[in-house]
Amino acid sequence: MKDVEQRGLWYEELEPGTRYLHRPGRTLTEADNVLFTTLTMNTQALHLDAAWAADQSWGQRLVNSMLTLATMVGQSVGQLTQGTIVANLGFGEVAFPHPLFHGDTLYSETVVAAKRLSASRPGEGVVSLEHTGRNQDGTVVATATRTVLVRCRDAP
Question: FRET label pair with 115: which of 4, 103, 122, 144, CA 20 to 30 Å apart?
């Protein structure tokens, strides 16, 4: 019997210009939003107070943008970095052009923007990823660039 262990991609398998569609999507509920918002001590009424939010420009509570970001990146893990990542090196250019609301479904995709072997860490490479999140209607709700350190296939 052959064993197959799910993993992300090695440095060598990540090709610049490749777009990965992460499925399934994730429907974000009121419970998700309230739990995340309170766990992270974000007391923003726009996420917690339905009566107050009803009188604001969106007319309802918004899903916490940090939950949107975390879910968008999390959706990429199984396909790209599960067991192959060494470290998250940083995020840049994070934007939320449109909010998510309770009951919206987040679909994410990632483009490998660039990569290079690490000069200081043999057997590892630096990879730049561009994440995009869309709601069920295809509207872009979040974008972020992320730099990760990834293991090479034959690294010790």
Answer: 4
Coil vs helix vs strand at 84: coil
Q: What angle do CA 45, 134, 70 make, to 5 degrees?
A: 55
Examine residue 8 and state whether it is found in any structural domain, yes or no: no
Region for 123 from its dihedrals, namely left if φ exceeds 0, alpha if ψ lies in -120 to 50, beta otherwise = left
**Positive or negative: CA dihedral 109, 111, 112, 114:** negative
Statement: the pTM of the whole predicted model exceeds 0.70: yes
d(CA 81, CA 89): 13
Tally Cβ neighbours within 10 Å of residue 39.
9
Note the pLDDT tens digit of each residue in 85-127.
999 999 999 999 999 999 999 999 999 999 999 999 999 999 9
- What is the number of domains present in the chain? 1
Q: Domain range spanning residue 73?
A: 15-151
